[in-house]
Amino acid sequence: MNIRKSHFSGTWYPDTAPACEKEIRQFLKEGKAEDTGKKLIGGIVPHAGWYFSGAIACNVIHALAQGELPDTVVIFGMHLHPESSPCLMPKGTWETPFGLLPVQEDLAAEVEKAFSFQIETSTRFRPDNTIELQLPFVKYFFPDVKILAAGVPPADISLQIAKKIAETASSLKLRLRVIGSTDLTHYGHNYGFAPKGDGPDALEWVRKENDQRFINAVLSMNPSQVIQEGLSRSNACCAGAAAAALTVAKELGAVSAKSLAYATSYDKHPGDSFVGYTGIVFA
Known about the structure:
The radius of gyration is 17 Å and the shape is globular.
């Protein structure tokens, strides 16, 4: 069996099932998840180390596990530029502390035929936290699921890929949930982006204006606007992933978006450089 070994376990998140479950239980207590009363189709999650943003990602994915469980979870991520080729691992399995997550190879094969991907394998891949950090949550809440994980750039091609995935999943009669992985503004001299200088005013600008603009774009459910917002305001590191997840959700019938949580790394580790995180669900 072709197993893609985890790269960030033991550093960005625990490397054993008991340790992961202990953190997940604590995240669920912190999240105070509410029942939206709607069938959730997808969501947006952050991808920093679990210490910083794990609670948000965990509670969004937990919310997606309410009701009838899916047989397939689609995850979009990767730090790509508009000119980057999309990435796909069409065969094999992903390693998590809770066990293996197999690729939904029937879905992957049809999508691979339709677009020019940078193909990854279980032994030849670019380590990337955006997808891997979600996998223990997916395996924990969806123990029998298969996944399709794709890296998508902030460009129109990602919306086309998303539509193809939704269309193919429907033809294969797959029950989907979809996740888009992105952090928000990376602010400060550590990231080479400090238009408002340092101090409380800069933090307030990120929280109340720059990050909120991206969140509002997602809540408006306009995928093209989501991409443009991320590119023009530097308020999302993976705007393509968020836009692709939103597109799949809309194709599958989502008509509303709701913000579940917002935080920054400053909340855990105050400093002049920090990152924003959001959790959003689509219904």
